[in-house]
Amino acid sequence: SSGINAEYGEVSLWKTAVSGGVGGSMCWGFAYPIDVVKSRVQVGTATPLGAIREVYSSAGVKGFFRGITPCLMRAFPGCGALFVAVDYTKLLFDRAVLPKY
Q: 81 exposed, middle or buried (CB, 10 Å; 0-12, 13-18, 19+)?
């Protein structure tokens, strides 16, 4: 009932999905301010340091996190599904290709 299949060392589907969702959300939580600066630089309005100054002077620290809610709402299911797809594809491949010990 721990969510791990002892025979193969598999973690259950839902635990894999939740782990991916939490990990992806945390990643975006840390990377989002950098992404805000990157987007300003790509538009061509400022240099990286200029973009940081511009965001901070106009909105303070909150400006670096404006729009993060939709990003996190996308990240959780997207990263969760990615983890499940990679984990179970690897599992199916291992079962099909590797000999059983």
A: middle
